[in-house]
Amino acid sequence: MKIGFIGLGHMGNPMVRNLLKQGHSLKVYDVVPDLVKKVVGDKCEAAASVAEAGKGVEVVITMLPSSPHVRNVYGDRNGLLASIAPGTFLIDSSTIDPLTSREVAMDARAKDCHMVDAPVSGGVAGAEAATLTFMVGGEAKDFETAKPILQAMGKNIVHCGGIGNGQVAKICNNMMLAIEMIATSEGMTLAAKLGMDPKVFASIVNTSSGRCWSSDTYNPYPGVLENVPSSRNYTGGFGADLMLKDLTLVTEAAKSAKHPVMLGAIAQQIYQKHSIDGNGGKDFSSVILQYLKL
Amino acid sequence: MKIGFIGLGHMGNPMVRNLLKQGHSLKVYDVVPDLVKKVVGDKCEAAASVAEAGKGVEVVITMLPSSPHVRNVYGDRNGLLASIAPGTFLIDSSTIDPLTSREVAMDARAKDCHMVDAPVSGGVAGAEAATLTFMVGGEAKDFETAKPILQAMGKNIVHCGGIGNGQVAKICNNMMLAIEMIATSEGMTLAAKLGMDPKVFASIVNTSSGRCWSSDTYNPYPGVLENVPSSRNYTGGFGADLMLKDLTLVTEAAKSAKHPVMLGAIAQQIYQKHSIDGNGGKDFSSVILQYLKL
Amino acid sequence: MKIGFIGLGHMGNPMVRNLLKQGHSLKVYDVVPDLVKKVVGDKCEAAASVAEAGKGVEVVITMLPSSPHVRNVYGDRNGLLASIAPGTFLIDSSTIDPLTSREVAMDARAKDCHMVDAPVSGGVAGAEAATLTFMVGGEAKDFETAKPILQAMGKNIVHCGGIGNGQVAKICNNMMLAIEMIATSEGMTLAAKLGMDPKVFASIVNTSSGRCWSSDTYNPYPGVLENVPSSRNYTGGFGADLMLKDLTLVTEAAKSAKHPVMLGAIAQQIYQKHSIDGNGGKDFSSVILQYLKL
Amino acid sequence: MKIGFIGLGHMGNPMVRNLLKQGHSLKVYDVVPDLVKKVVGDKCEAAASVAEAGKGVEVVITMLPSSPHVRNVYGDRNGLLASIAPGTFLIDSSTIDPLTSREVAMDARAKDCHMVDAPVSGGVAGAEAATLTFMVGGEAKDFETAKPILQAMGKNIVHCGGIGNGQVAKICNNMMLAIEMIATSEGMTLAAKLGMDPKVFASIVNTSSGRCWSSDTYNPYPGVLENVPSSRNYTGGFGADLMLKDLTLVTEAAKSAKHPVMLGAIAQQIYQKHSIDGNGGKDFSSVILQYLKL
């Protein structure tokens, strides 16, 4: 297929490479020319602008850092929707707030374009290995259209319901993850301080009612699991500042919906503090350092 | 074996019955005479006092509601330790604070008695079915002594390290559980309010990084899982006021250890509010009602 | 002076009347025609549009409900800045986020217009009595220009520093106020539950280190002070949903600034819960009902 | 009068000196003999034990660090109540939990002794200058008995109602104080980060609805007020660890009363974190350092 791709950062770059591997032809754009240069080549043409990237293609995929970027790329006077051909299929893989996803999709429908939101989990490593999970929001028919394209870049392609629900699934899951990571940090460090061996405590929790992904697969206490960020000084993994971004999104979405999320709001504050303490670049499991002196 | 058993409430009663089934002889005591009458019979003799229950037996098991009760039963002028024969083996299955466990065990050693703390999980149903989990704190040798006795009443007998660590394991696990239950409540209700089907959201979380026992085994959102309290109006299960008791224990223990547990403290407050709102007798997953109007 | 006034709601209406009393001539606009009809009359002309309200006047005052409204009224293609005469002086009395204030003021400068932000406190009663407090952000010279105009509507006209600082002062003050109101609610209800007479406790706090405006001037415990909302079933005063709006603004501003505000975030959650419990229309001191059964 | 005095630490020592200045005769005791030596002299006799300090005196005053100390000094087999003469008047100036105050007073009544609880505020400086505030719980008649004695050591002698209410008043006031100090810290640092001059912000808050003792009399932001701990690197004043002790007492009392205190619980956690970060010895206004890099 002929695909436009906008946003060539840490995630977009390997996603483009995987699309090329599957034989697609691409027109690519980024505001930073150097990022474009890194991927142009055989079957991968540089577009001079956002509008240009959307012309003469069947599908456009966007991978952008925030809601305002998505609004601008799609909605500006020089944006995608102003010039796109009716019937072009749109996939936004940015992680943004669900309301923006829904508004942009509505604007797209006014131009006779179908759209899905398809945020990812799996990070840069998943993007490179084409093992990303895509959480897709959109009509059933549109999900079927998107699925084979996304399979070039990911392994799990999950339908979450109507447009915007990909975002809802991602940010609500990540809110739970953040809270559970802090819960695990508090439980592990308190058990250790009260005299238990952290490995023994983890093994008990992991066969009991306190178990969670943060305790059994990604334990933040150094030395409990191998091959996780806590065993290599919190390098690699999913950055604390990225978690903070998702917590900010989800608490804003909760405010818009007038829904209380007490622990979510406090997790956002704890990650905020963790970030200004200088830990934003470390893996998000490093939040245990708020409780543990190494 | 000849076993003394003190504390014949909802848990103690079926535990005594299971010990009898395995052929042990018992001397039993409770401050409430009616509770004693319910179990006395063949090979199960009523003791007239705490001290009496500890005489002429090889082992004493206690199952009491709180730390002050444990202090009194063991430490009083008319308590167990004042009259017990050296060498009597002591098992305390109460859920209390680890410091009390350690102090009482130290007093027991001064009388040449070995002691383990062995709090349980599994509730009344587990006590009746002899499928309790015992989290045992004590020396390795003492754990080996306790194990066959506890197997008459439970299925998983876990060694958690030195004396008091049974309590540490239980209350730290339950703190994580309480936080994760609230995290699941916030995530499920927010996803639903933002437009997702709760079952679809649960299925995504449960194969993703937000999964935890509260989401995949005991989901608090009505209709997501069958045969859990949320599917029967939060009856049965583990009472919210029992969770509140454990949260109070763990936050006190954290204060004694001068260790911060921000989310643990807030979970304690949320369950406190839930209780004064009149929900203390419901299953603890009913905390979702703080976020959901049914 | 000839003044344009946009936004004629509960606050704007009495502000317009007070400007007229001081002899100013007005051109007024609101999207709701009925609100316009309520004020037009001698020296008070209806404008047919936002742009119209800004023509042929020396000053424009805006009193709008939120940041997006302010962006639209000033920034739209048909907005104020597109048609305004250079040199027109602009006063925005809306309570919005400081970043928006600063951006709009920058756009205004590009049209050779000076602007101040001047959010108010004092509520509808203050607007009617011309006793509002105006917290003014802008250059010293612009503050001097604004001051006599604002004095027609208020009593305290305070210079808070550069543009946007009026908003900063208001939302940071109100965050402190919300936290202190909850602190007072917790202190008063706990003291009462522990056996103290609420009036005696209040009198002790109010001469001690726990005193605050919420305890000595606006006590939320019924019967402690006369002539405050708590003495009349929380009617009148400053609505809980308005406080929630300010808490939402301030926590967003904190996120933009990457600054932690733990208690501010929790206060936002508590007011959010209070609102969905059905109390949004009551005075904000009714938050004590989260702790007190009346 | 002939007065027994038990507890000769930082507070007890100057309190004893002030009683002597007013012409009273004392019998003094402390477990640390050196502390006794510091005060013995003319009209101030050393007692060999707690029991001894209570013999041949009309009044006993105790000034002890915690509830268990109070229980031991009064309740032990060798304690005050075991040997005291009926009719001896008892004043406990320790800050402890109200339940303990009430229990000890009940035990005292069984020995025909009247008792008041009379915790203080004002710190070491107030003790030295005889300007302490005494918050007194007890019957009206007992308050009248205590008042002239306490006036030798303090300036404000406040009757708070029945026995235990002195404690309630103190710990509930201090909970409000702690929350308000953190509220002021969040408000001041956020306003500064958003671009306001801290002095200007403080002056606005202090004439507005956000004002509190922490903002207008003891502002934690360096340079806003003179002669407060924040102007001298948080030395002197009321130690953060003493505030932590009071927050621990009040949150325990709330748990016993089954009363939620969400912000109180979080303030306790924030001071806990502040303490393990190494700031326990600084003035409690140093909690602003959790938000401010100096």
Automatic annotation (TrEMBL), chains A, B, C, D:
Molecular function terms from GO: 3-hydroxyisobutyrate dehydrogenase activity; NAD binding; NADP binding
Gene Ontology BP, a term: L-valine catabolic process
InterPro entries associated with the record: 3-OH-isobutyrate_DH-rel_CS, 6-PGluconate_DH-like_C_sf, 6PGD_dom2, 6PGDH_NADP-bd, HIBADH, HIBADH-like_NADP-bd, HIBADH-related, NAD(P)-bd_dom_sf
The reaction(s) this protein catalyses: 3-hydroxy-2-methylpropanoate + NAD(+) = 2-methyl-3-oxopropanoate + NADH + H(+)
Gene3D superfamilies: N-(1-d-carboxylethyl)-l-norvaline Dehydrogenase, domain 2, NAD(P)-binding Rossmann-like Domain
Span of domain 6-phosphogluconate dehydrogenase NADP-binding: 2-161
Active site: K170
Superkingdom of origin organism: Bacteria
Pathway: Amino-acid degradation; L-valine degradation
Enzyme class: oxidoreductase
A Pfam family recorded for this sequence: NAD_binding_11
The protein's Enzyme Commission number: 1.1.1.31
Coiled-coil features, chain-numbered ranges: none
Residue intervals of the 3-hydroxyisobutyrate dehydrogenase-like NAD-binding domain: 164-288
Annotated keywords: Branched-chain amino acid catabolism, NAD, Oxidoreductase
PROSITE patterns: 3_HYDROXYISOBUT_DH (PS00895)
NCBIfam families: HIBADH
Family: Belongs to the HIBADH-related family.
Protein name, as recorded: 3-hydroxyisobutyrate dehydrogenase
Gene transcribed to yield this protein: mmsB
